[in-house]
TrEMBL record:
SUPFAM superfamilies per UniProt: Periplasmic binding protein-like I
Protein name per its UniProtKB record: ABC transport system substrate-binding protein
PANTHER family in the record: ABC TRANSPORTER, SUBSTRATE-BINDING LIPOPROTEIN (PTHR35271:SF1), ABC TRANSPORTER, SUBSTRATE-BINDING LIPOPROTEIN-RELATED (PTHR35271)
Biased composition (Acidic residues): 335-359
Region feature (Disordered): 331-359
Pfam families (UniProt xref): ABC_sub_bind (PF04392)
Domain of life of the native organism: Bacteria
InterPro entries with a match to the protein in the record: ABC_transpt-TYRBP-like, Peripla_BP_I
Length: 359
């Protein structure tokens, strides 16, 4: 098996070419000349900060890209479950594993830990909102010393506009967030800017851990809607926010589609599986030598990974009706979405039985 301590020492493209040639000989690989060589073996470490649907989907997207490649890629997954000591152990373990070709931290806290701990193995972050604010890279055009990746920066202004379009008369929007997560602070600041432009107020509630989410949302006063950013702490306790919205008939919107599937009303946001696939493609290009980290600045999410998503059951439970023209253009999740999918599958099966291929 090729071990990427070789790649870690690459300083120039010329050296890289020599090393890849040597690796192909060791493995008896079938890689052709130029760019990515097929049939090599690699090892990638995935360090996930905590389990929730968005980060799980990101990890799955990364793994699927690596599995679908023409290479033999071993993936080692570790999950810190939002525990600081566990996170340090995970990152420290990866830093000392000389067999790794790349480490992929998922979410800002573990990306920061990886950037300060791992010196030799390339680090490719994902699910990081603002890598510049987090100190991972100097600017959006330049990678860090040993780190680059894909940002999940949200179109916050468009997401808040969506709330206005659905709810109508909105004067105050509540935002629960963790002040310890720089990714969340950046989104709240963006929401404040958007609110000033769109003409409503933001009421913030900062929490420090998931157990405080319930108390945090109950402290809101006279908010017309709630917006949940991509905040690992709040999203981990999202059901508490949803229950508060249903009990008090306050519409709850989210920054990403997985939270809509869990019971918020809607979003114009990232499909985190596609976000993971984008990060996986970056990992693949770096470990195979198709690209070099020093020439790979951080990327924003592909616009194709942005989509309108609504949960019609959640909207009904929170007392709002989504305009039909918006429903027609959106991905529908929840029971209504499941029903629609079932009806479509049944219609397709019926057409197949009757030989009707009319669209």
């Amino acid at each position: 098996m090729k071990r990427t301590t070789l790649l870690k020492t690459v300083a120039t493209s010329a050296t890289l070419g020599l090393l890849l040639t040597a690796c192909g000989g060791d493995d008896g690989g079938n890689g052709g000349g130029g760019g990515e060589a097929e049939g090599e073996s690699y090892k990638v470490g995935i360090a996930q900060y905590v389990s929730h649907p968005s980060l799980d989907a990101t990890a799955q997207g990364i793994k699927d890209v690596l599995e679908e490649s023409d290479h033999d890629i071993e993936v080692e997954e570790q999950n810190a479950q939002a525990d600081q000591a566990t996170m340090n152990n995970v990152v420290g373990g990866f830093a000392g594993d000389g067999d790794l070709d790349a480490v992929v931290p998922i979410a800002t806290p573990v990306a920061i830990a990886a950037a300060t701990t791992i010196e030799d193995t390339p680090v490719v972050f994902s699910a990081v909102t603002d890598p510049v604010d987090a100190g991972l890279v100097p600017d959006w055009d330049t990678p860090g010393d040993n780190i680059t990746g894909v940002s999940d920066m949200n179109p916050v202004d468009e997401q808040l506009q969506l709330i206005l379009d659905v709810v109508g008369d909105v004067e105050v929007i509540g935002i629960p967030y963790s002040s310890a997560e720089s990714n969340s602070v950046v989104q709240v600041e963006a929401a404040q800017d958007a609110a000033e432009e769109l003409g409503f107020e933001i009421q913030e509630v900062a929490v420090t851990n998931t157990s405080e989410v319930a108390q945090g949302v109950e402290s809101f006063s006279n908010v017309d809607a709630i917006y949940v950013p991509t905040d690992n702490t709040v999203v981990s306790g999202l059901e508490t926010v949803i229950s508060y919205g249903i009990d008090n008939q306050i519409p709850v919107f989210a920054a990403e589609s997985d939270s809509v599937e869990r019971g918020t009303i809607g979003t114009y946001g990232l499909n985190y599986y596609e976000h993971g696939r984008q990060a996986g493609e970056m990992v693949l290009s770096l470990i195979t030598g198709e690209a070099e980290l020093a020439d790979t600045p951080p990327s924003l999410a592909d616009p194709d990974a942005l989509e309108y998503t609504f949960n019609l059951d959640a909207a009904e439970q929170m007392g709002v009706e989504i305009p039909q023209d918006m429903v027609d253009e959106a991905n529908i999740v929840g029971e209504e979405g499941d029903d629609a999918a079932t009806e479509e599958e049944t219609a397709t099966e019926d057409d197949a039985e009757t030989g009707d291929d009319t669209e």
